[in-house]
Amino acid sequence: MSATFVGMPPFPAAAREKLADAQLRRNLAHATSTIRDRRAALVAEVDTSVDGGWEALRVAGADAKDTALRSLDRQLLRLEETLTANGATVHWARDAAQANAIVAGLVRAHGADEVIKVKSMVTQEIGLNEALAAEGIAAWETDLAELIVQLGDDLPSHILVPAIHRNRAEIREIFLRAMGAAGRPAPADLTDTPAVLAAAARDHLREKFLRAKVGVSGANFAVAETGTLVVVESEGNGRMCLTLPEMLISVVGIEKVVATWDDLDPLLRLLPRSSTGERMNPYTSMWTGVTPGDGPQQVHVILLDNGRTRALADETGRQALRCIRCSACLNVCPVYERTGGHAYGSVYPGPIGAILNPLLRGVGHSAQIDALPYASTLCGACFEACPVRIDIPSVLVDQRAKVVDAHRGGLPTPEAVAMKAAAVGLGDARRLAGGERFTRLGLWLARRVGAAAWTSTRDLPPAPRETFRQWWKRTDGGTR
After folding, report:
1. What value, to the nearest 5°, has the Cα angle with vertex 470 and ends 468 and 473?
2. Closest to 57 measured CA to CA, from 302, 467, 440, 388
3. Does a structural domain hold residue 348?
4. Alpha carbon separation from 22 to 165, 184, 468 (Å, rounded)
5. pTM (predicted TM-score)
6. 79 belongs to a structural domain
7. Tens digits of per-residue pLDDT, 19-70?
8. How many domains does the chain have?
9. Which residue stretches of 216-327 are H helix?
10. How far is CA 242 from CA 23, 131, 296, 338, 469, in A?
11. Contact 368, 345 (CB under 8 A)
């Protein structure tokens, strides 16, 4: 599998390629519309008289996350204290390399050469599977969609449904072709019926669950008050990873902390409705350190920064750290629905990826990252859908400004030259009046030379027969 998204072309080039894939667009349109409809039905049923309605729940969720972020230093120390008191070992990782080294060291020290994994965005973010492979350690994905991606030597395309770009016929072919090389093969008479595909995946994974000594997870939330980690899922594979192995290693982004159990309450009601369109997740697993004789007897928690303190320092962008990875913004985004997640070149695609990647990694050093804040129409649908009220459009505009500022100096771009010329022309009435005589010529040239790329996708109105000044002069100020 490709080790990283780095090296993929910037969004404009990648999106152009994906737009030409008619099957991809059909897969995306069907999947996102189905999830949108389910979400809308569940959101509408939130009882205003009991909960104050959906909007009140959104405000409560945003407040819970902001409470922790405003005192993140204290909450993290409290989390470390409660985790340690309950028998877990806490590690701190500044970046991906440090986190991967800690995981690999723990697996080797336990005498294992493979791990089973809960679906985890943060381990994809740091490239854990590839780092472990370089150390001779196999990492097996157990979430059905992640298994499809892994067996297909593919990359995830969606936060909630990583294989959203695949249809069931494609999944059948992947299982038949690749399962045998990774373990138990798919049955020769495999069909593309969803239940049959799921049964083949279950049989394939069962031997891995029973054999593996080490499990690896992320966490949806970490409660500082008690040292409790929370993972929500729909299949039960995650619970197998969390309970069967001898050792459990959880890589947790530092923004996942919430202060108290009360703060967890609105988030556990917002997440399932926003992600899978369910009232509650089929599996909500919580564990607090080590319980003698029950579950993993060695629990390690790696608290990961990897750019999160950079994002926290951004006054406008820090709200992105509220994100609970529900993917609601992807499912309503007209850009994502037409291009899919691969065009964003990141494990975090869609509107949230367009702001989170620049915030975590900084702008001005990668054409790929610098293009992401522009991968949006700024329609605002993402903000309306976000369960924790992240104002993604505002952050996108702010990040666009930062991209421009990062490239100041040196040779000016054609756009900068055009804006400077416009400022000179519009800043003086006589220059403006003189320039108006050449409006027709200017628009003709713009369509063919200077702004051809811009005007090829936007309507440029024709030049009027006469300017306002000419009309004013001819009609004596509109009196005749």
Report:
1. 110
2. 388
3. no
4. 11, 33, 47
5. 0.87
6. yes
7. 999 988 898 898 899 999 999 999 998 877 666 899 999 999 999 999 999 9
8. 2
9. 237-243, 261-275, 308-312
10. 36, 21, 8, 36, 75
11. yes
Buried residues in 255-266 as b, exposed as e (16+ CB within 10 A) = bbbbbeeebbeb
**What's the rounded Cα separation, in Å, for the pair 71 and 430?**
56
Domain that holds residue 190: 72-309
H helical segments located in 116-158: 121-125, 128-134, 144-151
Q: Which amino acid is at 200?
A: A
> Measured between alpha carbons, how far is 143 from 221 in angstroms, rounded to an integer?
19
Q: Is residue 177 part of a domain?
A: yes
Cα–Cα distance for residue pair 296/285, rounded to 1 Å: 14
Is the Cβ–Cβ distance between 296 and 247 less than 8 Å?
yes
Cα–Cα distance measured from residue 99 to residue 96, given in angstroms and rounded to the nearest whole number = 5
Give pLDDT tens digits for 293-348: 999 999 999 999 999 999 999 999 999 999 999 999 999 999 999 999 999 998 89
Amino acid at 192: D
- What is the rounded CA–CA span in Å between residue 121 and residue 118? 10
CB 278 within 8 A of CB 230: no
**From CA 116, how far away is CA 214, in angstroms rounded?**
7
Residue 147: give its domain's CATH number. 3.40.50.10420
Angle in degrees, CA 162, 167, 169, rounded to 5: 135
